[in-house]
Amino acid sequence: MLDSAILVSSFLSKGGVSFAILQQGKAGKFIWYCTEEILQETRRVLLEEPRIRRRYHYTNEQVRDFLESIRAIATTVQSLPEISVVKRDPKDDKILACALQARAHYIVTRDKDLLDLKSYRGIHIITPEDFIALLRQGANRP
Known about the structure:
Blueprint: H1 4-12, H2 17-26, E1 33-34, H3 36-48, H4 50-55, H5 60-73, E2 75-76, H6 93-102, E3 106-108, H7 112-117, E4 119-120, E5 123-126, H8 128-136
Parallel strand pairs: 1-2, 3-5
Antiparallel strand pairs: 4-5
Helix pairs in contact: 1-2, 1-3, 2-8, 3-5
């Protein structure tokens, strides 16, 4: 599963590794899980963060279309278990809960608090660079 920072990065940087991962997901190279909360956080950052809006030029409609394209592809996970793992940033627990509920194999993130865990209940927590390397090596549906 991909966290909201990866989704934001893929929207803003069409040539970056996050965008490449998104394209692999759209091509069905991995099973992609998401929650409505992750999509709403992505929406909030893209539409309400002044520094991002000043630096990048895109319309609200482009953000809406982007989020709808994700909803069309990703498997939405609901009924997340209550967990308390990430002490420094408890909102990251929702990412872990989504991955746990979905029985995901990987969480792809740049979040230091999550990356410091390295894994959680058998779910590998890795950077986008490590994940794209797995995809390029032809790993069976990471």
